[in-house]
Fold this protein.
Amino acid sequence: MIDQLLYDEERIRSENLRELLYKYEKDGTYSHHVGYDYLKPEELLMHDMLKMMKEKLEGIRQKVLAGELSPICYYMEKNNMEPGILSQFVGFSSRKVKRHFKPEVFRRLNPEILKKYADAFEISADELSSLGSSVTS
């Protein structure tokens, strides 16, 4: 049943989902072709999941650029973190981390706090701040 639901040839072709296929020939050589004829259901599910994650991340980025969220939200999502996990990395309570999601609060954070967040995301403090820089300028 799941195979029937997930295998939609039109969708596979329209999204340009292809797979390189190899075939062992009788003469002992391999031939190959790029085909649409076989994509496993789990590959389609993975493709859909990644697409949804990218769309969610882009939505958060747009909110950061619009001044609705701080860059912390973007990098937290990009790193698949929740506020509770991020709070453990930076040493603040979850409540305080969530407060830093507000752009007006984020803009007032001192360099030491920004460095803690940047270290948690494995980026520079400048990179953390630059995502939201077009909001403040």
About this structure: Residues 1-7 have pLDDT under 50 and may be disordered. The chain has two domains: 2-39, 51-136. The first strand starts at residue 19 and ends at 24. The first helix runs from residue 2 to 6.
